[in-house]
């Protein structure tokens, strides 16, 4: 299916609910769950260390070093599977990506809190391509200060691709809340362009 705009003021969202066929998404979920170097990193919040409520991994070109939630990420080199996915996502998004952040939500208790992907190394108007595999989870967007608009919920099925572009990160935050529904794992890949650092 093609990418289709989701209208939202101050944002630029494009969504394809069926970017990958179901069977391919399921096979990728299995191979990436087994083959990726997952870590549970700590996050520092208000001077205290907490384990992140999900597993993560960072792959990319060598210069795509990234600081995120006070953690510095050295990318691991692309695997053939991730490299092939990058090329397909680049073609669909009509954009280039030098890195991918992978998040594994092991069940409904794993989550991602409210944030915007607005780190300086992403630039003021980043293009972020988010590919979802596995259990359907609800993605939430809420307006940042200065924009009065109700939040948006978007269910992200396995094989779906969501692009966030333009001023989206400046005007909106997003999150992946916990759920009490009994769900299997969900794996999310966000392809990004990170400006190189010395
Ligand atoms: O898992 C998701 O859909 C969101 C991931 C996300 O926001 C991020 O990696 O910055
Ligand atoms: Fe994000």
From TrEMBL:
Chain ranges of the Fe2OG dioxygenase domain: 96-195
Keywords: Dioxygenase, DNA damage, DNA repair, Iron, Magnesium, Metal-binding, Oxidoreductase
Cofactor(s) for this UniProt protein: Fe(2+)
UniProt superkingdom: Bacteria
Record bears the keyword Transcription regulation: no
Keyword presence, Kinase: no
Molecular functions (GO terms): catalytic activity, acting on DNA; demethylase activity; dioxygenase activity; hydrolase activity; metal ion binding; oxidoreductase activity, acting on paired donors, with incorporation or reduction of molecular oxygen
SUPFAM superfamilies: Clavaminate synthase-like (SSF51197)
InterPro entries: AlkB-like, AlkB-like_sf, ALKBH3, Oxoglu/Fe-dep_dioxygenase_dom
One GO biological process term: DNA alkylation repair
Protein name, per record: Alpha-ketoglutarate-dependent dioxygenase AlkB
Native source organism of the sequence: Hymenobacter properus
């Amino acid at each position: 299916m093609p990418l289709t705009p989701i209208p939202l003021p101050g944002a630029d969202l494009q969504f394809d609910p069926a970017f990958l066929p179901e069977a391919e998404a399921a096979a990728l979920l299995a191979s990436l769950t087994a083959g990726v170097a997952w870590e549970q990193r700590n996050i520092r919040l208000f001077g205290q260390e907490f384990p992140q409520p999900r597993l993560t991994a960072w792959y990319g070109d060598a210069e795509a070093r990234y600081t995120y939630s006070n953690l510095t990420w050295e990318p691991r080199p692309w695997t053939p599977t991730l490299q092939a996915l990058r090329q397909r996502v680049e073609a669909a998004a009509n954009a280039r990506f030098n890195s991918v952040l992978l998040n594994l939500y092991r069940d409904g208790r794993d989550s991602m809190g409210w944030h915007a992907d607005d780190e300086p190394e992403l630039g003021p108007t980043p293009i972020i391509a988010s590919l979802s595999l596995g259990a359907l989870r609800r993605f939430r967007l809420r307006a940042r200060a200065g924009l009065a608009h109700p939040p948006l919920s978007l269910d992200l099925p396995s094989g779906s691709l969501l692009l966030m572009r333009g001023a989206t990160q400046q005007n909106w935050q997003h999150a992946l809340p916990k759920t009490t529904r009994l769900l299997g794992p969900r794996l999310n890949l966000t392809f990004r362009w990170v400006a190189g650092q010395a």
